[in-house]
C-alpha cells in the first residue's frame, strides 16, 4: 500500500479555503457578509463496535462538538454537527454520493465501494483518512449456525441458506472462505439481509447460517441462539474499519477536519484507558449486551483501536478490490493508493507517526497477577479474564486453566474470556470447545477452541486430548494442580 502525504498544492489550497472562511467571518462582523453556520454531517453505524471511536462514543462524549466550540471561539465561526446512524456501509455511501454526509465510518469492503462510486462526482469524491479498529488476523467477521445444527465445517453448508449482507465485509469474508475451501458458492443459497434481520432469522430457523461482521456473530453466540462455525481469521486476511471524508468538504473546512481527528484520537484513547467502562457505555447506548461489547473492545480483545492505516492492510485492499471488481461494485481502474490519504494522521501524530504505524500490538493489554495460580498475566496467547456478576471490575487469569479455577471459586460469573489455543482470538469461555490434554503442564491442562474444526486440528497432533464440557472442565480444574 502506498501511503502518501497530501500534495503541497492541495494542502495550500485547503489552507487558503480555511483562511477565506475566517476572513469571511471577519467581514461579516463588520456587517458586510452573512455568517452562515457550517454544518458537519457525520454518518456512523452505532452497532458496529469497531467504529465507536468515530461514531457511537464520539457522539456521546461530545468531544467533536467541544473541539468545534473552541475553534469557534477563536474564529467567530459557528458550527453544527448532525449525526446520522446507518445499519451498514451501503446506505451511508448512498448519502455521501448525494452529499448529505460529509464524514463517515464503515468496513473495508464498503470503504472501497464508497471510494469507487463517489469518485464519479466532483463534490462527492471521498478519501480514506484513518482507521477506527482492526484485526490483523481478520477475526471480526465470522459464520455462525444454530446450536442444533449438525454442521462442523463450511462444506456442511452445501444446499443450506446463509444470511449475509451483499457487498459487506461479512459477505466478502464468506465468499473468500468458500473459495479457500474449494466450495462452489453456487451450492450455497445466499439470503441478502441486514445483520439484525439475519440474526433474527437464525433464531427463528429461517436460515441455516449467518455470515456477518462485528458484533453480530458473537451476539448470536452470547444469546445462545447459535455457535461459531468459521472464524474469518482463517482466511488470513486483515479486516478493518475506517473513516472516509468528502474531499470537497475537507478542502473547504480543514479546521473542521483537524477538530474531528483530535476528537477521534481523544475518544480512542479513552476506550483503551478504560475498556470496561467504554463497553458498558456502548451497551447503554445501543442495547448490545456489555459482555459482547467487552469481548471485542476489552484488553486483548478482537478489535485493536488504532487510527493508523497499517502497512499490513495492503494485501487486504488488493483482495477486497478483486472481489468487488468481480461483483461490479468497484471499477478495475480504481486506484486504492490514491484513495488513501494519511496526511491528516501525520499531522495529528507528528514525529511519532511512523512508530505508531509500525506498532501492531493491541494497545489494550490484559496484565496483572493471577493470585490463584500465582503467575504473572503476561502471555496474550494464554491470558484470560473473569467478570464476576455484580462487579464493575474483572480478574485476570494467567491461562485458560487458571481461569477455570477462578470461575470455580466465583459465586456467580457474568462473563469469562479465554484465547483460542491455536489462534489466540478472544472467546466466551462457556461457548468454547474444550479439550483436556493430560500431557500439558497443570496450569495449561484445559484447551479452549473457537470451533469444532479447531479442536479436531489439535487432536490430530495431540491424540491424548479428549473432549470435555465447560461445566465439567470448571469442576475438574479444582484438582488440576
TrEMBL record:
Keywords: Signal. Residues 130-277 form the SsuA/THI5-like domain. Residues 1-26 form the signal peptide. InterPro entries: SsuA/THI5 (IPR015168). The keyword Cell membrane does not apply. Residues 457-481 are annotated as: Disordered. This is NitT/TauT family transport system substrate-binding protein.
